[in-house]
Amino acid sequence: MSHVPQPQHPDFVARHIGPADDDVAAMLKVVGQSSLESLLDQAIPSVIRAGAALGLEAAESEPAVIRELRDKASRNTVLTSMIGLGYYGTHTPAVVRRNILENPAWYTAYTPYQPEISQGRLEALLNFQTVVSDLTGLATAGASLLDESTAVAEAMTLMRRGSKVAKDAVLVLDAQLMPQSIAVTRTRAVPLGIEVVVADLTTVSDAAALRALAGDRDVFGVVVQYPGADGSIRDWRGLADAAHEGGALVTAAADLLALTMLTPPAEWGADIAVGTTQRFGVPMGFGGPHAGYMSVRSGLERTMPGRLVGVSVDADGAPAYRLALQTREQHIRREKATSNICTAQVLLAVMASMYAVWHGPDGLTRIARATHAKAVALADSLHAAGVETTADHFFDTLTAVVPGRADAVVEAAVAHGVNIFRVDADHVSLSVDETTTAEDLHAVASAFGVNIPTLGDGEPNWPTVLRRTGEFLTHPVFHAHRSETSMLRYLRALSDRDYALDRGMIPLGSCTMKLNATTEMESITWPEFANLHPFAPADQTVGIRELISDLEGWLCKITGYDSVSLQPNAGSQGEFAGLLAIHAYHQANGEAHRNICLIPASAHGTNAASAVMAGLKVVVVKTAPTGEVDLEDLKQKLKEHGESLAAIMVTYPSTHGVFEDTITELCSLVHEAGGQVYVDGANLNALVGLAQPGEFGGDVSHLNLHKTFCIPHGGGGPGVGPVAVRAHLAPYLPNHPLSDEAGPATGVGPISAAPFGSASILPISWAYVRLMGGAGLTEATQTAILSANYVAARLREHFPVLYAGENGLVAHECILDLRGITKDTGVTVDDVAKRLIDYGFHAPTMSFPVAGTLMVEPTESEDLHELDRFCEAMIAIRGEIQAVADGAVPVADSVLRHAPHTAVSLTQDWDHPYTRAEAAYPAGVDPLRKYWAPVRRIDGAFGDRNLICSCPSPEAFED
């Protein structure tokens, strides 16, 4: 099949796909195939091949796509938002927007699993953790969660684990918790068998009263909003004491900006704090992405979900950052994992942290006081006109009492260019923020028919018990960068310590690090998308919802499924949503007893974690020696569990990078037993345009838009994990209580805070599909498969390729087996990974899905020069290994074991059996493009034993 792009898209496809026509011919020769079609015929089982071309028309050009996006954006109406409910207007500092959000050095980086080349974003995340810890007063904060509502749900399970009360204890939520958080928590609670009670907790002052609200049952956890959804600020000390007396833990869902003025949750007894950092410089974006947060008191840090950045030391004893406590990751703990989170919101957490660095504690307090002053002025005007508000003490949100007039007041506000929130027929709420102007206050006052508000100084009238007294953000980093010159240089210095796709290839198997084209990224900062509130009226969000509908339809065509929900804001959330749909389907058919989920031993770890979260019991199916699912073991498991079978979760192509020719038989066997087939879409980039999981036997799949469909990884998030289903599961897709348009009325409930998840980054995937068209998408898949087979062919004689199909071919990735090398020489996958840094590469995926291996996925975007550069680096490293094998160099003092080599290390005393030049400039490294790791190899065990998860003092680095 020709590599020549189709006439309707002569430019973009050729620019997205790395190898040119001559390169494809040369690569095919190395692989031993006469054509792409011949390669595909031998690599992909004919039984799953799509019968027709993928019928998606490509746009004429990149400018044409921008015009189409402009047209959609124009159909959104961006009013001044005073809806609040966890989403607020914010000014993104221009230096942060340009140098982080719009900078590929930040947005094309991968999760910092190779910490030596991730020191910049790890420092930024440590700043983030420090901001959260300082403002909440709790000892340890994580490196971000997905959003506020899922953070509340994560707090629920953390409290369940951390409390010592009876197993049938209940969770109690205050009635003023954000409505979306109540709904998401209920969705999470049902499959776990946790009962949720929603009640007014303002009068609870002893354990007996709390127990009475819970129906005379034990309570394991309590969650309050601080300030409440109605705007009220309450002293929760009595409730916290009562909860602790009864053995429960307490979570505060807290507003970080308010906490610059409010008593920190830790000081009134909260064990956990959660929330969102959206208003720290991250646009509302119709719901996301935004960085959720969690912080915990001492003693709970080792049970926190998600990622935690800590400070360790490198081989020279210098402080260095890394992810701490990584044994919590799902691929290790699997069904014993306490969460299925596999992506964070790193890019957004970095933005929020730099908002705090830019403003510092004084600047944040000024913004908070100015915000509060606007709310006070508005309240004074309302009160002067006889309009009551419900809270004596508030920060930025007022709930006005308007008996029988709520709809009229909301309509009047819209007529004046402002959105406020209808609570019920008698109440409306309105929230101000840092972007609210005097004109906005005038407009909303006019809607109420009251006098123009007069601004004061923002001094709160709160009692002393509610007012912060201690300092926060005292670390020098929050005081050092007040000029833009200084801030610009700080951001540049951090990005220089990182390795991202703008430097070179990131050949991670299973993670698909390919081009994130600039045109695809262009529209995400447009105000028509960025400044939309997720709960804005439907008639104001026509353009973005049309874009969402387009993308859903295209994904259905690509996958062969009938319906798609874009609400899941991570692949793990898509898995969870798909499994909930399966459970709801069985329940609707009177088969709620079906609770067994079969999962191959080779599956992604999140599969097992998601299954447990969905209330299913995991039964592992063996993997055959050749890498595919062991069908004989599957048949045995079906025989044992058929009556209780809910589903099987299978990744296709397999996690081992092989197109299994047994997939259709597997699907048939499971269907015959009454189960559903969940095809994990992690490897969909090997299928697009060639095969459709919805056609070859799948009932449901999650997809990864941050992989196959070009949303950048952002250093470990954002992600989008849509769930795609066949028609019989469509009634059970996610929905949302605050948006009728978000899903079916019969749905399983919301699984993310916003109705359409991380909607502001969906234009990236929309633009990618529109630019590529069906032919371009198909060609991308073909090239990805060719590239993987090219790498396998070039490296096979140096490193055994662990799995291959019947014809010796792999899919879109290949696994290099180092286990024999390690046994013979002592050289480990870690040694090879760290040595690759000296050669200017990010390592492939280490020890997954098989310990002691490297999984390589080159993607279609890398050109032949970069593929060869990688192959030659690996071959050269094999030569270095051979020197160890031959006894010429001891492994403990080899260039491999001491890698990576920093510039500083070359200036120190040198007593190694290799030269400085061999260390720093191995074969093939261009001195003019040399990437220098900022630290030497990091001691992970030291960091876990000595857990430091907030900014250390400068003296620590001097010592």
Automatic annotation (TrEMBL):
Gene3D superfamilies: Aspartate Aminotransferase, domain 1, Type I PLP-dependent aspartate aminotransferase-like (Major domain). It catalyses: N(6)-[(R)-lipoyl]-L-lysyl-[glycine-cleavage complex H protein] + glycine + H(+) = N(6)-[(R)-S(8)-aminomethyldihydrolipoyl]-L-lysyl-[glycine-cleavage complex H protein] + CO2. Its EC number is 1.4.4.2. Residues 780-901 form the Glycine dehydrogenase C-terminal domain. It comes from the Bacteria. Keywords: Oxidoreductase, Pyridoxal phosphate. One of its GO terms (molecular function) is glycine dehydrogenase (decarboxylating) activity. Transmembrane segments: none annotated. The modification N6-(pyridoxal phosphate)lysine is found at K707. Its cofactor is pyridoxal 5'-phosphate. Residues 15-448, 478-734 form the Glycine cleavage system P-protein N-terminal domain. Belongs to the GcvP family. The glycine cleavage system catalyzes the degradation of glycine. The P protein binds the alpha-amino group of glycine through its pyridoxal phosphate cofactor; CO(2) is released and the remaining methylamine moiety is then transferred to the lipoamide cofactor of the H protein. The glycine cleavage system is composed of four proteins: P, T, L and H. This is Glycine dehydrogenase (decarboxylating). The gene is gcvP.
